[in-house]
Amino acid sequence: MKNNDWLERFGLSAGRLPKGHRNTIADVAGVIVGHATLAEGKTQTGVTAVIPAPGSPFQNKLIAASHVINGFGKTAGLVQIDELGTLETPILLTNTLSVGDAWRALSQAMIESEPSIGGAAGTVNPLVCECNDGFLNDIRAQAVTPELARQALAAAAPDFALGAVGAGRGMSCYQFKGGVGSASRLVTAGARTYTLGALALSNFGEMEDFTLNGQLTGAEAKKILAAEQLHEQGSCIVLIATDAPMTARQLKRLCKRSSAGITRTGSIIGNGSGEIAVAFSTAQRIPIDATGELALRSVSDVHANLFFRAVIESTHEAILTSMLAAETVTGFQGHRRVSLADLAGRVPGLPAPRC
Predict the structure, then answer these.
(1) Could you write out the three-class secondary structure of the chain?
(2) 28: number of Cβ within 10 Å
(3) Which residues cross the membrane (predicted)?
(4) Which residues of 134-149 are buried (b: 16+ CB within 10 A; e: fewer)?
(5) Does the annotation mark 184 as catalytic?
(6) What's the pTM?
(7) Structural contact between residues 9 and 354, judged by C-beta atoms closer than 8 angstroms
(8) Which pLDDT score, from 0 to 100, does residue 320 have?
(9) CA nearest neighbour of 161 among 149, 152, 150
(10) CA separation, residue 253 to residues 64, 99, 197, 237, 278 (Å)
(11) Which of 88, 114, 208, 275 is catalytic?
C-alpha cells in the first residue's frame, strides 16, 4: 500500500487507472510542494506552495491553462494565463483575505531571483489561489504574512503532508474537516506512459450532499453530528500537472473535466462557491527570449479520454484524501470540524480502516 493511498486504507476506490509511486502531484517529475501552517487557538490557516518545475519558470515558462467552473473567488493571475497560455511562477494557495500577502511574497521572491523583472523583461504574473477558511480561522486577523508564504516556498519537497496543513489548515469540506489532498494516475497513450497528478484544496459542500461509494454518507453523518444548517458556499481549487506534452487548449480541456471529479463527491457546485482549476505541463518549456518559430509537441487527441479519466479520478481521490488525512480541528469561536476518518465504520460507504 502506498503511504499516501488513504482510500486503500479504508477499502475505497476512485477509479481504475494505475496510480503513481507517491500517489500525489509530485509523481510528475520536478513538481514539489511545501506548507507553512499556523495552528493555535483562533488562528487556523496557512500557505501551500506548488513549485511546478526545476529552474526558473520565468525564464523558461510552462504551457498552462485555467478554467473557472464557478467564479465566486478572488484568485490572482488567471487572466494572463488564459491570454498567453503559460505559467511563469510557482503557485501559492492560502485563505481569501491573504491573497495580497501571498502575492507580495511571490512577487518579491521572483524579483530577487530574476533581476530583469520590472525592467527589461517587464513584470511578472504571480499565481495565487484561495479558499475562505473563516469558519475555523479568524480570517479578519489576516495572520498570514509574506514571510509565512516564503516559508512555504522554502519548504517545498517531493514528499509533503496532506490534510489540515498549510492552506488547508482551516478549510471545511461538506462540513467535515477539509484541507489539502493529492493523487496521481498513469496514462498509457500509444507507446508512452505519462503521469498526471492533481492537488485539491477542498472547502465546499453541505454535509447531506456528501456521497461516498455511491452512498449518502453525509446524510447519515449529519444525524450523528447534528451539523448546523448551511447554504452551499466555499471553494475548491484543483491544480493539475502532467508530464505529457500538451497545448494550452488541451490543458484547458483537462481543467474542465476536474468538475466531474468534484461532483462525484456529491457537490452541486453552489452559487457561493469558487471552483477553479489550473493545469500545466512539464514536458516542454518556452524560453523568455525565444524568437522565430517554436517547435512544440503535443499528444494526440485520440488519447484525450484517457487523460480526462485521469483528471476525474485523481481530482475525486484528492478531495477524499483531503478529508481522510485531516485531523479534527477546533478553532475560531470554538467552531469545530470533525475528520471524516473519525466516522469510519459508523456511516454507510466508509468502512473501518484496514490498518
Answers:
(1) CCCCCHHHHCCCCCCCCCCCCCCCHHHCCCCEEEEEEEEECCEEEEEEEEECCCCCCCCEEEEEEEEEEEECCCCECHHHHHHHCEECCCEEEEEHHHHHHHHHHHHHHHHHHCCCCCECCECCCCEEEEECCCCCCCHHHCCCCHHHHHHHHHCCECCCCCECCHHHCCCEECCEECEEEEEEEEEEECCEEEEEEEEEEEECCCHHHCCECCECHHHHHHHHHCCCCCCCEEEEEEEEEECCCCCHHHHHHHHHHHHHHHHCCCCCCCCEEEEEEEEEEEEEEEECCCCCCCCCCCCCHHHHHHHHHHHHHHHHHHHHHHHHCCCCEECHHHCEECCHHHHCCCECCECCCCC
(2) 25
(3) none
(4) bbbbbbeeebbbbebb
(5) no
(6) 0.97
(7) yes
(8) 98
(9) 152
(10) 11, 26, 15, 16, 11
(11) 275
Using CA atoms in the order 284, 289, 291, 296, what is the torsion angle rounded to 10 degrees? 10
Burial class (CB in 10 A: 0-12, 13-18, 19+), 67: buried
Tally of CA atoms within 13 A in the half-sphere of 265 that contains its CB: 30
Domains of the chain: 6-285+298-340 (3.60.70.12)
CA distance 295 to 291: 11
User: Does 275 qualify as catalytic in the annotation?
Assistant: yes
Query: Do residues 2 and 129 touch, judged by C-beta distance below 8 A?
Result: no
Residue 237 corresponds to which cell in the numbers above? Answer: 481549487
Distance CA 214, CA 2 (A): 24
All cell numbers assigned to 302: 485520440
- Cα separation of 152 and 166, whole Å? 8
- What are the average pLDDT values for consecutive 10-residue runs of the chain, which has 355 residues? 82 96 98 98 98 97 98 96 98 98 98 95 97 97 98 98 98 97 97 98 96 93 82 88 98 98 96 96 94 90 98 98 98 96 95 87
C-alpha cell at 280: 500545466
User: What does DSSP say about strands 192-203 and 179-189: parallel, antiparallel, or unpaired?
Assistant: antiparallel
Q: Locate cell 517547435: which residue?
A: 295
Residue that the C-alpha cell 486503500 belongs to: 8
Residue 40 known to be catalytic? no
Identified catalytic residue from 273, 314, 322, 339: 273
